[in-house]
């Protein structure tokens, strides 16, 4: 008799007609919605003690040396947390710190005053990184869901948050090449009218943007429900090589032009 009581207490309740209830737990139902994920991310963005900065630094290092490992970790996150996008804002915080540090370097090279430095910083963070990133992530998110998703069955959609994470991942190596390496070489080597300066500066830009395209391609190719993701790799690289060749033929020093543009928009 005691055994039957325990079984009765542990069994889920039944409806009057004897059937089991089929409605899911509301907490489980809301756990995986985009709105719930966004609220969770925003709640943690000011909770520095809850951020895993060590893991975010690991991701940054491997984005430079082996980005495939980073996206392998995104696959593990999908299995354990049921979402592709990051739920920890530590990577975004560290990226923002890197942008602030590199902006100081640009302010020194361009000889910017305090006010112009803050204008430059706002441009770099909210336009170059976030604004352009929102545009690129939205376009690629739409293209991936509309044209690259495998048809048939209940195939998942590409999360917009994951598309933006892919942009942030690809932006970090570009930041290191163009805001660190290029900055160190600009005054002694790149700020010249010679063909060698043009070749070196434009090659840095070619490497940076090609790496951005490659890391972006790796991000979308990591999603098992997408096909023909090479569309994010070969066509952009072909266009980029054509621009590179034209820039060399016309002796267009992209590094100097961008520096002039940076200086122009803050004055």
From TrEMBL:
GO cellular component: Golgi membrane
InterPro entries reported in the protein's UniProt record: UNC-50
Membrane topology: Multi-pass membrane protein
Broad class of where this protein is predominantly found: membrane
Domain of life: Eukaryota
Pfam families: UNC-50
Protein's UniProt name: Protein unc-50 homolog
Lineage: Eukaryota, Metazoa, Echinodermata, Eleutherozoa, Asterozoa
Gene, per the UniProt record: LOC110973172
């Amino acid at each position: 008799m005691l055994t039957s009581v325990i079984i009765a207490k542990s069994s889920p309740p039944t409806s009057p007609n004897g059937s089991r209830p089929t409605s899911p737990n509301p907490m489980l139902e809301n756990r995986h919605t985009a709105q719930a994920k966004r609220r969770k991310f925003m709640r943690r963005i000011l909770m520095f003690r809850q951020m895993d900065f060590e893991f975010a630094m690991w991701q940054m290092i491997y984005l430079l040396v082996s980005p495939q490992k980073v996206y392998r970790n995104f696959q593990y996150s999908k299995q354990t947390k049921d979402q592709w996008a990051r739920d920890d804002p530590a990577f975004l915080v560290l990226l923002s710190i890197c942008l602030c540090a590199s902006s100081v370097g640009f302010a020194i090279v361009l000889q910017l005053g305090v006010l112009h430095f803050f204008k430059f910083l706002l441009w770099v963070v909210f336009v170059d990184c976030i604004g352009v990133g929102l545009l690129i992530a939205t376009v690629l998110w739409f293209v991936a869901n509309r044209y690259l998703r495998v048809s048939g069955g209940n195939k998942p959609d590409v999360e917009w948050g994951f598309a933006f994470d892919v942009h942030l991942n690809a932006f970090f190596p570009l930041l290191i090449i163009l805001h660190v390496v290029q900055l160190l070489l600009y005054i002694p080597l790149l700020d010249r009218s010679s063909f060698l300066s043009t070749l070196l500066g434009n090659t840095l830009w070619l490497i940076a943007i090609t790496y951005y395209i490659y890391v972006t391609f790796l991000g979308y190719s990591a999603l098992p429900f997408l096909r023909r993701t090479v569309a994010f790799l070969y066509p952009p690289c072909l266009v980029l090589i054509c621009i590179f060749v034209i820039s060399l033929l016309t002796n267009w020093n992209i590094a100097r032009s961008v520096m002039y543009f940076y200086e122009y928009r803050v004055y």
